[in-house]
Design goal:
The protein starts with 15 loop residues before the first helix and ends with a helix. By secondary structure, it is mainly α. The chain has two helices and no strands. 0% of the residues are buried. The chain is elongated.
């Protein structure tokens, strides 16, 4: 029998393309997008271009 995931209110499967795009920000490129320093500005730019 094929399994179907129906609990999207709890979480949803992550698209591999999205995971690839997010990996730098989860592993090495940290910065508060609300801050004024360079790491934060880079994070804000990434969000705006997403």
């Amino acid at each position: 029998m094929e399994r179907i995931y129906l609990d999207n209110a709890a979480t949803t499967p992550l698209d591999p393309v999205v995971l690839d795009a997010m990996m730098p920000y989860l592993t090495s490129q940290f910065g508060n997008p609300s801050s004024i320093y360079s790491y934060g500005r880079e994070s804000r730019l990434a969000i705006e271009n997403a």
